[in-house]
């Protein structure tokens, strides 16, 4: 049965490959960075299992590994290796191969889609082929492997050159690949250390609670601001809801819970478009597309986020108190 | 109320503004906030390690890199550009708005992993967009290309965000329902998801209009350049 753990092992194998190649090329900082990360990926399930069993030492070691990564990150200057095929060679290859080049690229979304839709029905000798937890992501990983084989066949290149090209792209992304995981960890620490409760207490201390509109504005802007700080609307929602939404808007002013919840969450989503803390949506794509400014994607989203927020707020205001 | 952990937020803001390495800034903020809240160092390390490995799925995109890298090496982007320049009816705005609609519909069905920056934007949407923009103005420079790629990534994000909230079995709706259930308010997931529809429509309209304005700006600039050259 294919489980999400297998996917993590596959990622670990790729990271260790990158680290070992760096080691052979005597790029010690890069090698250390990818090797530590690879070990964290491969050993992650062991860490979680031990943590659940009440043994904290593996998670403490993992935490120390995270600190090592943070200290190594500034030494990794991101640089795109020069593409060893010239533009003319690539164009020639593009003309020769034509639409065949699109097939492996389209296989990635297509296989993912098929697994997401039908993976639950696939069984072999009475056992399900895919574990139901995280099936779409397992499907995506399978799709990537199939696409790699297909790409090697189309381009008549060995699989190893696929790994080398993958490493070239990973080096161009560099430490930015790590940010989403670290920000998730930061969110957890913020929650545990009561940052959310402190912000909610500050917000309610000056709020004119008698005015429904003032409460609604504070709630919506609080969702945006808190999402900008935490990088995630899911972290903002319980805090703003417990601080303002439930006691003031629903209990005191009679707001409709379904509308308030749904549209309040969407106000938070507008915040996600604005913040470098949502690294997986904003900074990683900028690195992946090799933009010169890491904030290019946020800049492109700024006005969209503002107008969507305004539209959502107006609709919420008109609907929520009826 | 202990307000000291808020200093972690200040570390983030100042660190990003002064452009220190973001990885270092984030870990410093986490350590600072945790210590100020009175966590011991072993507890803090365990918390960091556990939450880091719990979110490993966020690096899944690296698995797309070998296949995409190999295809780009063999000329995928050049092919997408050549193909785009032959499709005459497909303008930049139609390409991006069509992608936005598709992405939003897929997310509405809960299929968010099907497309994304690594899966579809870098290998397909961005090069096709560049080719479509080059049909409007052949003299695009690096700044224009950066802006175009950023618009493509933004379109992908907006399509995903404001589609997934309509899907009943996905995180957001379940989180809202779970919160209310904990506080004694019973709601069906469908009644929550339906109220995401107005914003989904608004987001589609807003982003489509912005894409169209972006295309018009490129067209006007190109027309201005042509008029300047004709003088």
Automatic annotation (TrEMBL), chain A:
- Transmembrane region positions? 31-49, 101-124, 130-151, 172-191, 211-237, 258-278, 298-321
Keyword match Transmembrane helix:
yes
- InterPro entries tied to this protein: DUF979
Superkingdom as given in the UniProt entry: Bacteria
Which positions carry the signal peptide feature in this UniProt record?
A: none
**Keyword Iron assigned:** no
What are the alphabetically sorted keywords of the record? Membrane, Transmembrane, Transmembrane helix
Please report the name of this protein according to its UniProt entry. DUF979 family protein
The upper taxonomy is: Bacteria, Pseudomonadati, Pseudomonadota, Gammaproteobacteria, Lysobacterales
UniProtKB/TrEMBL annotation, chain B:
Going by the UniProt record, its keywords in alphabetical order are:
Membrane, Transmembrane, Transmembrane helix
Highest taxon above the source species:
Bacteria
Keyword Transmembrane helix: yes or no? yes
Locate the transmembrane regions by residue number. 20-45, 57-76, 161-180, 192-213
Instruction: Write down what this protein is called.
Output: DUF969 domain-containing protein
Species assigned in the record:
Rhodanobacter denitrificans
**Organism ancestry:** Bacteria, Pseudomonadati, Pseudomonadota, Gammaproteobacteria, Lysobacterales
């Amino acid at each position: 049965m294919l489980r999400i753990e297998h996917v993590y092992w596959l990622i670990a194998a790729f990271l260790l490959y990158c680290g070992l190649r760096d080691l052979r090329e005597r790029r010690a900082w890069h090698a250390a960075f990818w090797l530590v990360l690879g070990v964290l990926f491969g050993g992650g399930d062991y860490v979680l299992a031990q943590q659940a069993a009440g043994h904290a030492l593996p998670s403490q070691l993992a935490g120390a590994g995270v600190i090592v990564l943070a200290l190594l990150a500034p030494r990794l200057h991101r640089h795109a290796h020069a593409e060893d095929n010239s533009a003319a060679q690539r164009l020639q290859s593009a003309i020769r191969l034509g639409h065949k080049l699109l097939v492996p690229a389209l296989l990635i979304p297509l296989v993912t889609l098929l697994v997401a839709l039908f993976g639950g029905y696939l069984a072999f000798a009475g056992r399900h082929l895919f574990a139901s937890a995280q099936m779409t992501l397992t499907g995506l990983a399978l799709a990537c492997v199939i696409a790699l084989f297909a790409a090697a066949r189309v381009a008549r290149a060995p699989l190893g050159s696929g790994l080398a090209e993958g490493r070239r792209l990973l080096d161009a992304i560099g430490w930015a690949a790590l940010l989403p995981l670290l920000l998730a960890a930061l969110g957890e620490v913020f929650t545990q250390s009561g940052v959310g409760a402190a912000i909610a207490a500050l917000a309610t201390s000056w709020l004119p609670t008698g005015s429904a509109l003032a409460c609604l504005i504070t709630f919506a802007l609080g969702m945006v601001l808190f999402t900008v700080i935490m990088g995630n609307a899911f972290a903002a929602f319980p805090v703003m809801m417990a601080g303002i939404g439930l006691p003031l808007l629903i209990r005191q002013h009679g707001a409709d819970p379904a509308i308030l919840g749904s549209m309040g969450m969407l106000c938070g989503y507008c915040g996600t478009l604005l913040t470098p803390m949502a690294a997986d949506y904003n900074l990683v794509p900028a690195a992946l597309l090799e933009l010169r400014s890491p904030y290019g994607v946020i800049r492109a989203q700024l006005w969209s986020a503002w107008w969507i927020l305004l539209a959502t707020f107006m609709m919420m205001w008109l609907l929520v108190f009826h | 109320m202990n307000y000291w952990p808020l200093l972690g937020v200040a570390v983030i803001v100042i660190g990003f503004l002064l452009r220190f390495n973001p990885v270092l800034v984030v870990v410093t903020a986490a350590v600072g906030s945790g210590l100020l809240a009175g966590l011991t160092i072993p507890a803090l390390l365990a918390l960091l390690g556990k939450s880091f490995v719990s979110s490993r799925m966020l690096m899944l995109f690296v698995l797309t890199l070998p296949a995409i890298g190999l295809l780009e090496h063999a000329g995928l982007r050049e092919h997408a550009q050549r193909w785009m320049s032959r499709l005459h009816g497909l303008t930049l705005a139609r390409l991006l708005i069509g992608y936005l609609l598709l992405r939003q519909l897929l997310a509405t069905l809960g299929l968010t992993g099907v497309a994304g920056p690594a899966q579809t934007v870098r290998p397909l949407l961005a090069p096709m967009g560049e080719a479509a923009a080059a049909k409007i103005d052949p003299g695009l420079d690096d700044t224009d290309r950066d802006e175009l790629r950023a618009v493509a990534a933004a379109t992908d994000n907006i399509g995903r965000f404001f589609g997934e909230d309509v899907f009943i079995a996905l995180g957001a709706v379940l989180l809202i329902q779970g919160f209310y259930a904990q506080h004694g308010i019973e709601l069906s997931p469908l009644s929550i998801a339906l109220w995401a529809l107005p914003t989904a429509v608004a987001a589609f309209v807003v982003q489509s209009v912005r894409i169209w304005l972006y295309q018009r700006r490129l067209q006007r600039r190109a027309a201005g350049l042509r008029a300047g050259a004709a003088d």
